[in-house]
Amino acid sequence: MRRYGKHTDEDDIRSRPNRKGNRPRTNIRPKHEDAAEGMVLTVDRGRLTCLVDDRTVLAMKARELGRKAAVVGDRVSLVGDLSGKKDTLARIVRIEERASVLRRTADDDDPYERVVVANADQLAIVTALADPEPRPRLIDRCLVAAYDGGLEPLLVMTKSDLAPPDKLLELYGHLDIPYVVTSREELENGDAADRVRAYLDGKITAFVGHSGVGKTTLVNALVPKDRRRSTGHVNAVTGRGRHTTTSALALPLTGVDDWVIDTPGVRSFGLAHIDPSRVIHAFPDLEPGTEGCPRACSHDEPDCALDTWVEEGHADPARLYSLRRLLATRERREGD
Predict the structure, then answer these.
(1) What does the alpha-carbon distance between residue 248 and residue 88 come to, in Å, rounded to a whole number?
(2) How sure is the predictor about 13, in pLDDT bands with cuts at 50, 70 and 90?
(3) What is the pLDDT averaged over residues 167-173?
(4) Alpha carbons within 13 A on the beta-carbon side of 145
């Protein structure tokens, strides 16, 4: 074995070659200072379609990123062929820090969280008032995920021609969530799209909803030039919708900063990744009252200081009820 003295020159040290070539191994990663900025529009089997300037570029993730995955909405840096021409492929070498994330798990027992969308400003929760019946527990879970991930919620109720929205509005009115009520006729004549579009100005909005609620139909109405997917129907026997959207896709609206992200229909929304202590941040009128709570307070126990806070008139009792209902959602499944 070769030994070196203390005055060894660097040039005298041999580097072990890579098995696949003559380039020495190194832990130093390239900086890619000339990389172009882009936004991920959709992901399909390891290939990512990105918007770079005014063109779409097909790319793959660079090996140096390891297991870190890019999702729709991510701001990324790309190198390679950025022409967007057929049969060209660029590389994503950086994923920028995310301003917000919408995450879910398969169920409440699954520790593996999935980032659905990154950097969205708003989460539009789409629910039908009938056919299929609304699922308040699923709506609650989406709200918890929105608050935890830094997204503002928007409730969109469809099919008001089949049932009135009164019951749902009673449940969510005290949460101060903006909402839009639409009917099938309004979707067809464009009135519904105009009302929803008023809430999307200057924002990146992710749309989520149970299968069959009309989410993709609504997205198609909002972005007529970029038809999202074919629409499905609700099974008359099971009362469940059929998945017509299989991958998330970002679609541009009229403005530069206006984007709609259509996501696949969900039948469950696991919250295993959610820390219940963070949900209180969505209730700024109640949060100061938690200063007197015992350590690790669940905000639904006899010693919780929020009861006194509300009794003293600092907040509406309905708001405390809404907080506790959302916290309890973390412990329930949607069908309960």
Answers:
(1) 23
(2) very low
(3) 87
(4) 32
Return d(Cα 199, Cα 207) in angstroms, integer: 13
Q: Whole-number mean pLDDT of the chain?
A: 83
Tell me the residue ranges of DSSP E strands in 133-212.
152-158, 179-181, 204-209
Q: Which two tokens stand for residue 259?
A: 């984007």
Backbone angles phi, psi at 123, to 5 degrees: -115, 115
Rounded to two decimals, what is the model's pTM?
0.79
**Residue written as tokens 């570029």?**
57
Q: What is the pLDDT of residues 253-293, one digit of tens each?
A: 877 789 999 998 777 787 877 777 778 887 888 999 999 99
In sequence order, what are the residues at sequence separation of 6 or more whose Cβ sits closer than 8 angstroms to the Cβ of residue 177?
A: 143, 153, 154, 155
List, in order, residues 6 or more apart from 64 with CB less than 8 Å away: 29, 30, 93
Q: How many Cβ atoms sit within 10 Å of the Cβ of residue 153?
A: 22
Helix (H, G, I), strand (E, B) or coil at 171: helix
Q: One-letter amino acid identity for 271?
A: L
* Token digits of residue 3: 């030994």
